[in-house]
Structures are given as structure tokens and as C-alpha cells.
Design goal:
It is built from nine helices and 22 strands. By secondary structure, it is of the alpha+beta class. It has a six-stranded antiparallel sheet with strand order 1-19-16-21-14-13. It has a six-stranded antiparallel sheet with strand order 2-3-10-5-8-12. A five-stranded antiparallel sheet has the order 7-6-9-4-11. Bound molecules: 2,5-dihydroxybenzoic acid. 2,5-dihydroxybenzoic acid binds next to strand 3 and strand 10.
Length: 349
């Protein structure tokens, strides 16, 4: 009883000096931080933000005169969430960057436990090689390099090529599970003809004895823009979903799951003039406007999106898109991680 009484009358000065004394033992009181530790709903420290490609393009190309792809290993400008500067993160869980490769350059072969996706934005003639196969990078192509697969990039063409890199770097860093290795040779030997993986694994058929575990990444490492676009155009015959327009998720065709275990990717077509209903979800999402133009209303802020612009929408931020002209949006998020852990939630209003 006495204890209760004295606790009630403890002054903030007495508490403070107590906190100082327990700090000597590397302890701290939960009651001062409980609300922040166990919030009633997500309160992401990240903010919504958009990068205008037209505005940053010249600065990306300028990096080409400052450092070679070989010296940089990966010549990339990281897109940092303005509220997470210094953390190389676009959301708490995800990384994004703009990678530049000039004609004649090679980004040397390496592999790492981080999974990577590429979305080709600008220029033509570069390739990404994964597991002995090269794929020509064309605008809008969605290309993946799953965890621990050897990959290198080269540009035998005659234009600078820029693509968006999306990686799960913050997730792997959070778990302290990152390994990386450089190859002895600059680029990996080509052992399979271009189109091999897509024919074998991405044509509604699989090799007769092929099996994968649910968490295995897809062997299809390129999802060509041409196919994505013709799918989305075919869907226009039906009515658009009120919250998404015509939205599809990219899958590992052998499992129906996301192409890689840590990141989901999506493509959606929003008809001209169509306005999606308010929606939010717990997976912080990176959008890229691949064609057309749209307005994004994110938690009361408006962003105008033109071709190649990148928009980040943090967890549980209300989102609404209005297509000014018919717009195609690519997006990626950490949804499969949240789903595997039973954490993912969405809300449609
Ligand atoms: O292409 O492997 O933007 O390892 C960051 C880290 C790209 C890559 C990035 C990477 C890569």
C-alpha cells in the first residue's frame, strides 16, 4: 500500500533520476514508449513522396561523367525517402535506386542474398544476365535477379540506359542476413540462348519433371512489357475494379506466388478519367508511372505523375489515383513478407 502511495506522488524529477539510474544497467521504462511500440495502427516514419523523372534525369546522366560503372560496381542514385535520409530506404522495408549504364560499360557479375527487381525506364540496348542467360532490356520490362543468383549488366548498344532497381536491402539488413560475393570474371558465361527461361517456365507449360517449393523464386526472370501491356489492354473489355482499375500481380507461374519471396510486383491500367476509390494497405509501395499521366491523392497530398515518375506510398496511407489520360502503373512492395507473417491488412472504403 505504501508503495502505491509513494508511486502516485513521485515527481517527474524523481522519475527522471530513476530513469538515469536504470539506464546504467541498460534498462529503460516501457511505460514511456508503449504507445509508440504498440501503436493502435501503423504510424510509418516514412512520408509520401514523388520523384519527377524529367527533373532528375539530367542529374542521373551526370553521374556517368563522374564515375565508371566498373569503378562504382553499380552506378546508382538511391531514391531515399525524405523522412529516412541516410538509411538508403524508400520505405522502412524497401530500397529503390536509378541505375545508369553507358554504351560499352559493364556492371560486373556478383551475387547477394538481397533480391532485386529492375524496371527499365529509359534507353535501349542494355542487357541483364541471370544464371547464364542474357535478356535485352526494353522499356517497361520487369526483370528479376532472385537472392544469390549471379547477375551482371552490360550495354553493347549506343544509348545510355536507365532503370529502376528495387531491392529488399532494408529487410535483409534488419535481419542481419546479408551475404555477397564478387565473381572472378566481369561477366558470366552465356550458357543459354535469350528467351530460354521464358519459353521453358513462362509459357503456360513447365518442364515435365519441374517442381518448386512455395518460397522458391521464379525461373522466369523477365516479364516483357509487350506481354504486360497486351494483357492490360485485353482487360479493358471488362469493367475496372473500383479501387484499382485493371490491376494484375506478377507471379511465379509455377507456384502462383510472388516472383520472389520478399517482394510483390503489380501492373495496373487506369482508364482515362477513372478515379479509384480510397484504399490503404500495410505494405508500403513504390509506384512507377509507365505510361500516361495520373494524379495520386495520398493522405491529403496530391502528386502529379508523368512517364517514369516514381511515387512512394508508405504503409496505411490512404491512396486514390485519378488517370488524366489512360495510365499504366507498375508497383512493388513487401506484401509477401507481411502475408507470410500473417501481418498484411488492407482497407477499402
Ligand atoms: O544491381 O546488384 O541498386 O547489388 C543496389 C545494390 C543494384 C545490383 C542496386 C545492388 C544492385
Amino acid at each position: 500500500m505504501n508503495t502505491t502511495l509513494s508511486a502516485n506522488v513521485a515527481t517527474s524529477q524523481q522519475r527522471k533520476s530513476y530513469y538515469d539510474r536504470i539506464a546504467e544497467e541498460s534498462m529503460t521504462p516501457l511505460w514511456e514508449v508503449l504507445g509508440a511500440l504498440v501503436p493502435q495502427q501503423p504510424r510509418s516514419p516514412a512520408v509520401a513522396h514523388a520523384w519527377s523523372y524529367a527533373q532528375v534525369r539530367a542529374k542521373v546522366l551526370e553521374a556517368g561523367s563522374l564515375i565508371s560503372a566498373a569503378e562504382a560496381e553499380r552506378r546508382v542514385l538511391i531514391l531515399e525517402n525524405p523522412a529516412l535520409r541516410g538509411q538508403s530506404s524508400i520505405t522502412q522495408a524497401l530500397y529503390a535506386g536509378l541505375q545508369l549504364i553507358l554504351p560499352g560499360e559493364v556492371a560486373p557479375a556478383h551475387r547477394h542474398t538481397q533480391s532485386a527487381l529492375r524496371l527499365v525506364l529509359d534507353g535501349a540496348g542494355a542487357y541483364t544476365a541471370v544464371d547464364g542467360e542474357r535478356t535485352t532490356m526494353r522499356r517497361g520490362d520487369f526483370i528479376i535477379t532472385p537472392a544469390w543468383t549471379w547477375h551482371d549488366h552490360g550495354n553493347p548498344g549506343n544509348e545510355p540506359v536507365v532503370w529502376l532497381d528495387g531491392l529488399d536491402i532494408p529487410i535483409v539488413r534488419f535481419l542481419d542476413a546479408g551475404f555477397a560475393e564478387k565473381s572472378d570474371s566481369e561477366y558470366q558465361a552465356v550458357t543459354r540462348p535469350e528467351g530460354d527461361a521464358l519459353a521453358r517456365y513462362g509459357s503456360n507449360m513447365l518442364p515435365v519433371d519441374f517442381q518448386q517449393q512455395p518460397s522458391d523464386p521464379t525461373k522466369v526472370f523477365v516479364y516483357p512489357w509487350e506481354r504486360t501491356l497486351s494483357t492490360l489492354h485485353a482487360l479493358k473489355a471488362g469493367s475496372p475494379d473500383p479501387h484499382f482499375g485493371h490491376k494484375q500481380r506478377y507471379v511465379n507461374p509455377a507456384t502462383g506466388r510472388s516472383p520472389m519471396p520478399t517482394m510483390a510486383a503489380f501492373a495496373q491500367l487506369i482508364p482515362a478519367g477513372f478515379e479509384t476509390q480510397p484504399y490503404r494497405c500495410t505494405d508500403g509501395t513504390v509506384y512507377v508511372c509507365l505510361s500516361g499521366s495520373a494524379e495520386a491523392h495520398i493522405e491529403g497530398q496530391t502528386f502529379r505523375l508523368e512517364e517514369n515518375d516514381v511515387l512512394v506510398v508508405p504503409s496505411w496511407h490512404s491512396q486514390q489515383f485519378c488517370a488524366l489520360t489512360e495510365a499504366v502503373l507498375f508497383s512493388y512492395s513487401d506484401r509477401p513478407v507481411q502475408q507470410a507473417l500473417g501481418l498484411w491488412r488492407e482497407q477499402r472504403s
